[in-house]
Batch of 3 targets.
Target 1
Amino acid sequence: MNNAKHGAALLLAIVGTIGTLGVSSSARAQSSVTIYGLLDQSVAYTSNANAAGDSIVKLPTLTGSFPSRLGFRGVEDLGGGLQAVFTLEAGLLMDTGGLSQGNRLFGRQASVGLKGDFGTVTIGRQVNMTFMAMLKSDVMGPNLFSISSIDPYIPNARSDNAVGYYGSFNNIVVGATYSTGRDSSSAGGPGATNCGGEVAGNAKACRQVTGLLGYETPAYGFNVAYDILYGNVGAANGLTSSDRSDKRLMLNGYVKAGAVKVGAGVMDRTTDAVTGLTESDLYFLGASYPLTPLLALDAQVARRDQKRSANDATLLVARLTYSLSKRTAVYAALGRMKNSGLSAVSLDAGGTVGAGLTQNGLMTGLRHAF
C-alpha cells in the first residue's frame, strides 16, 4: 500500500473514531469535538502556459477560492477559565483525492494546547504569524489567482515542531512561534521543503522564528510581522546550510467603510540562498464589496518589485462569489499577471508561464463548507 492509500485509510479510521468521541463528549458539556471541512474545486484556463505561448485548461491541484480541508477541533474545560484545545486538519486535493502539504495526513495543522485569559499556547505543526498577519488584510486570501502565486509561502505559512502563542488584549494582538525544525517533508512544493532540523550540535539548522504585533477593531486594524527561516543540508530553495536564511518583514492593514472593506500591505523579503542574495518588495491593495446579500465582489492589485533587477511581476484579479446557501457558493474569477524581464510568475498558484510573458486567466468553481 503506497503512502497516499495508507494515509487515506488512516484518515477514514480517525474520522470514525473522533466522530464517536464527539457524540459522547458533547453530552458531558465540559468538552466537545467538532468535525468540519471545506470542499472547493475549480476549472481554470490560462494563456501562455509555456514558452511557446500555448494555453491550458485544467482542474487546479492546489486551490480554487480556498484550499479544501477536513478538520477536527476539540476543547475541554479544565476549570478556572482554563481550557485544553487541539486541532487536527488535513489538506485535501480535490482533483485527485490525495493529501496536500507534502502528502502529510494532517498537513494543515496538528497541535494541542492550553487556552485562558493569558491567550493560547500550542505545540505541534501549526500556522505561524505570517499566516495570521495576512488574514484580515488580504481580501483574496488563498484564491487560485492571488498574491499566493507571487509568493507561494504565504498560504503555506506553517511550521513543524513549533511552540506557538497568540493573545488578544483590549484590541492589541500579539503572537509568536518558535520552530526547532520548520518542515520535515521532502515531497516537494511550497508546503514541503525538506528541512526537518533538530540536529545535534546545530540548533540553528531549519530553525524558524515568527512574531506579530497588531491593533484590531471591527472598523480598522493593522499589524507588523516578522518571519525568518533557516536552512540545512538538502533543504529546498537554495537554503542548503544553516547559514542560509529567508526573511520577511510585513506591514498590513484594513479599514471598513460601510459595507466596503479595503486591505493593503507591504512585505520586504531578503533571501540569502546558495545562488546569491535576492531582495524584493511585495505590495498589495484590495477591496471587498457585497453587491447584494448573496453576491460579493473582491478585487486586488499586487506588484513584486525585484530589487536591482527588471524581473518584476504585476497582478490584477477580480472575483465574484454567489452564495447558494450559508454553506454553498459558486464563484468566477478573472486574472492577469504581467511578467517583466525574465520573471516567470504564473497567474495560477502552482501553474506555469513562459518567462517574461503576460498571462491571462479565467476560472470558475463550486465551494461547500460543512
Target 2
Amino acid sequence: MLRVAEQYVGTDTGRQRRANEDSMLARPPLFVVADGMGGAQAGEVASRLAVESFQDGLKDTTDAEASLAAYARAANAGIHELSQVNAEHAGMGTTLTAVYVGAEEVAIAHVGDSRAYCLRGGELLRLTDDHSLVDELIRQGKLTPEEAVEHPQRSVITRALGPEPEVEIDTRSYRARDGDIYLLCSDGLTTMVPDARLAEILLAHPSLRDAGEGLIAAANEAGGRDNITVLLLRVEEVQVAPSSPVDGPPTLTGIPAVARSDAAVEPSPTPLRPRRPSPGVPSTGRRKKRLRRAGATAVVLGVLVLLAGGAYTASQSIYFIGTNSRGLVTLFSGFPYELPGGVKLYSKDFVSGVSASTLNAQRRRTLLDHSLRSEGNAIELMRSLELGQLE
C-alpha cells in the first residue's frame, strides 16, 4: 500500500511578474497545481476557484480518475459562469494538474500546460502532454522541441478551464513504486529549465525541500519570466498486516483469540503429573497476574493512542494564517506550535501568491497573529487577501 512519505510546496512570483496567478493544494493524498490567466487579477481568481473545487478531497476514490475529472468539470463550470457575469473576469481561465495517490496507483487529471513528472530509478518521466500550440505542432512533426523553446507563440495554450462551457479532461493512472518522486509544476518552471536540468536538480538533493528550492532558484536564474510553482511528493510502500485467518475477535493484547475446534480432544491414555515450576519461571498464578497487568497496560496504551489520534484529527479542523519560508501568506491546519524534537502540530494547507512584505502593518497584525480560525473563516480571509479587499 502506498502513502506520501514526504512533500514540498513552493511558489515564487518570478522576476518579471508583479503578481502570482498560480494556486496550489497539498492535502495528501490529493495534490493540485493551477496556473491562471486573464487581466485584472482574473487569472488569480480562476486558479483559486479551480483549487477550491478540490478543497474537500475526493468523496469517491473507487474510480479516482473519474472523480478527478468530475471535480475538474465542476471547476470549469464555475469559472466559466463567473466569467460570463462579471466583466472584470471575462475570458479568464486556468490550467489544472491534479494528482491522487491511491493504494497502488497514482491518478492524474490534466488540462493546459502545467505538468506532472515522475522521477524513478534516476530517470525523469513526463506524465502529461501540454495542451499548447507548440506541443501540438511538435506532436504533428511540424516543429522540433528546440524550435519550440523560442517560438513566439510558445505561451499559447489550446485547452484550459474556464474559457468554454465544456472542456475535455485528460486522465490517466500509473502504477507507482516505492521511492517514486512526483513533480507537479506550472510552466514558469518548465519554460525556464529543461527536463534534463530538472532531473539533475532532483537527483542532487535527497531532501524534497532542498530540491524544490533548487528548482525555483534555477528558474529565476534563467530569467524567471513567469510565476513558478513547484509541488513535490515522495511515495513509499507500507506493509499492511494481513488479516487473521482465525475467526473471532482479537484479544486486548492484539493477539488473535484461539478458534474453538468442533472436533473433541481425545483424552490422554495416561494422566499427566503436574510439573514443579523451574527456577526463575513464575508459577501459573504469578504468570496470570503478569498477563493481566500486561493486558491492562496494553488497554491503557491503546486508549492513549486513540485519544492522541482523535486530538490530531480534531486539530485538522482548526486553521491559522502565517507565512512560509519564502514569506508568502500561507494557510495552515492544526495548532501554531512545535514540540521538542521538531514535531510540528500543524501542516501546510494552501500557499497564496501574496508576499507578507506587500501588506501594511495593520494588515499584517490582523492576518498573521496566528489566531485559531474555522476553515470557512480562514478561507474567506485568504480569498479577501488575494482579491485585495482585506480591510
Target 3
Amino acid sequence: MVMETGEPSTAGTAGGSKARSWGPLLIRVLSLLVISGIIVVSPGGLLDQADHVGYAVCHQILERTYFFGDRPLPLCARCSGQYLAALGGLLWLAAAGRIRAGQLPRRPIIVMLLVFLVIWGIDGLNSYLTFFPGLPHLYEPSNLLRLATGTLEGMTLAALLTPFFNITVWRHPLPQPTLRGGQDLLGWMFMSAMVVAAVQSGWPPLLYPIALLSVLGVLVLLTMVNSMIVALALRRDGAAETWWEATLVIMPGLALALLEILLLNLIRSAISQRLPTLA
C-alpha cells in the first residue's frame, strides 16, 4: 500500500528545468555548426565569397557596377551604397552609445528619411526603364546617381530598422531615438558622402575594404531581420539583458541569413542555367 504524503513530486519539475537549461545551449551550438559549416564549404578566397553573398541579393550587372582595377565589386553601385551606408550608420550608433536605441527619430527627421526613400525609388525606377529601349525615362541614369541614392536608402534603413530590432530583442532598450535631430542627420549625410567618394574613387587599395564591408552590411541587415523573427518564434522578444543572452536569437539569425544566401544562390544558379540570358 502506497501512502500519500501530500508533497508534490519534483521529478517533473527537475526534468523541465533541465530541458530549459539545455535548450539555449543547443540552439547556440546548432547555429554555430550551421555558420561554420557554410563558411568552410564556401569556395574561393575572401573576394570570391563576397561575390557569393552579392550574387544572392544583387543583379551584379557589370555595366552598373564599380571596378577597382580590373575587379568589379561584389555589389552593383546602388547596392554598394545601400549596404555600406547602412553598416556605417550602425557603426556610428555604436560609437555614439546608441546601438540599443529603442525609439524612432522625431517626425521631421522621419519625413526627411522618407524623402530619401522616394528619391531612391524614383532613381531606381528611372534606371529600370532604360532596360527597355524606346520607353521614356526622366533622365539619363549613371552609376554615381545609383551609388548616391543607394546611400540615402541605406542610412534610412539603419535609422528605422534599429529601433524595431532593439525593442524586439532587448528587455530594456535605450529610451532615445537613433537620430536626435538635424545635426545627427547631417552627420549621417556626411558619412554617406564619404562612402560615395570612396567607391567613386576606384582606388585599387580600397577594393578589399569596400568589398568586404559592403557584404558585411548585407549579413548584418539580414541577421537583424531574422533575429527579430527568431525572437518572436521562440517567445524571446524583449527578453535579453546582456549581449550573451542576445546571442540566443542573433546566432540563429545569422545562421538563417547564411542559409537564405545559399538558397538564393542555388535558385538563381538553376534559373540562369535554364535561361542563360538572365545570368
